[in-house]
Amino acid sequence: MRLTATGANARTAAVAALLVAGVTIVQAILQSVADALSILVYAASPVAVGYPPGSDAVGSFAATTASLGLAVAPVALGVFLAFWLLVPLTAELHVGRVALRSLVASAVAAAVALAIGAVVAAVDAAATAGPLFGNAFPRPDSSTLFQSLSMTVQSALYTFVAVTPVVILVGVVVWLWVARVSPAPSGA
């Protein structure tokens, strides 16, 4: 595959990335609201005796909002890079090619999420290894690091499955927009 970095590709890639990020944020907020409502319903039920109502609902919403940076940004970055450099959306494509290119963009987004997640897991393992200049230079626990990395791989696979329909839909919508705004070829 050759890199095809142009200004027009960057614009369509940015639009696609922003749309994917927007849909992902809306999905996360709706899921967080549903989680908070289920927590509130459980807290009000007779089963939850002594359970303070609403205590975990706010925590659930806050945790979802805090995790958006590590969930949405890598996906949007991957979609942008894929549609800009690797598989640009142009007006000449057919819908099958657009879907295939969107699938590639989704895979790139999952790969970017995997790379960022692996860095975060490694930094987290090093940060929890102990004091930097304690009795010896701290060594991260290899089982904790392995567990974090395996969870990161699992999360990247889940990300691929979760964002693929959104990326394909956004790819088709952006392709329709590009086909509509691009000038018709002049042929006499």
SSE topology sketch:
Layout: H1 7-44, H2 55-86, H3 95-127, H4 142-181
Mean pLDDT: 82
Helical run tally: 4
Low-confidence stretches: none
Distance from N terminus to C terminus (CA atoms, Å) equals: 34 Å
Q: What structural class should be given to the helix and strand makeup?
A: mainly alpha
> Could you state the order of secondary-structure elements as H and E?
HHHH
The total count of strands amounts to 0
Query: What is the beta-strand fraction?
Result: under 5%
Short description:
The protein is 76% helix and 0% strand. It is built from four helices and no strands.
List keywords for this structure.
mainly alpha; single chain; 4 helices; 188 residues
Give an overview of the whole structure.
This protein is mainly alpha-helical. It has helices at residues 7-44, 55-86, 95-127, 142-181. The protein has 4 helices and no strands. The longest helix has 40 residues, at 142-181. The relative contact order is 0.14.
